[in-house]
Amino acid sequence: MSQATRQTRRGSTVIFVVILVLAQALALLVNAILTVLDPESQNLPGPAMFFLAFLFVLGAVWLIAAARGVYQGKAWPRGALVVAEVLAVIVSFTYFQLGDIGIGVALVASGGLILIGLFTPALNKHLVKRRSQMED
């Protein structure tokens, strides 16, 4: 069997989940930059501000690694993304209470869509195909 026929065709659900996760990672990186540069963040003590930016960058790296893992058909990112997306949905309620409806909707929508996508038959099939190819 040739290498081309053995490769898994990534479905639209897999690509959709990967793009949404990468968009969340990008948002975290932008948040890290804004935390350091935004004058309103200057109310935080210096070490706290940089630690918060570090946590944003660390979260972005984690999401990028998980997106790569989903794209490659590895099983480990599912658990990591479930935890990250449940936290995103929980945090969205804080934004709703603060009156920042736009961010709240973005977090609920992206988190919910990723959670739904992680358990679709197409993504499950992608992960199973990749696992069976590795065993061959």
Short description:
The protein is an all-alpha fold and 136 residues long.
What is the secondary structure topology, with strand pairs?
Layout: H1 3-6, H2 12-37, H3 46-72, H4 76-98, H5 101-118, H6 121-135
Helix pairs in contact: 2-3, 2-5, 3-4, 4-5
What can you see in these coordinates?
With 136 residues, the chain is mostly helical. The protein has one domain (12-128). Helices cover 83% and strands 0% of the residues. It is built from six helices and no strands. The N and C termini lie close together (11 Å).
Taken together, the total number of domains comes to: 1
Q: What's the N-to-C terminus distance?
A: 11 Å
Helix % is: over 70%
Strand content: under 5%
Radius of gyration: 18 Å
List the secondary-structure elements in sequence, H or E. Answer: HHHHHH
Structural class from helices and strands?
mainly alpha
List how many beta strands DSSP finds.
0
Q: Note poorly predicted spans.
A: 1-8
* Average residue-wise pLDDT: 85
The largest pleated sheet is described as: none
Question: Could you say which overall geometry the principal axes of the C-alpha atoms support?
Answer: elongated
Helix count?
6
Keywords:
single chain, 6 helices, 83% helix, elongated
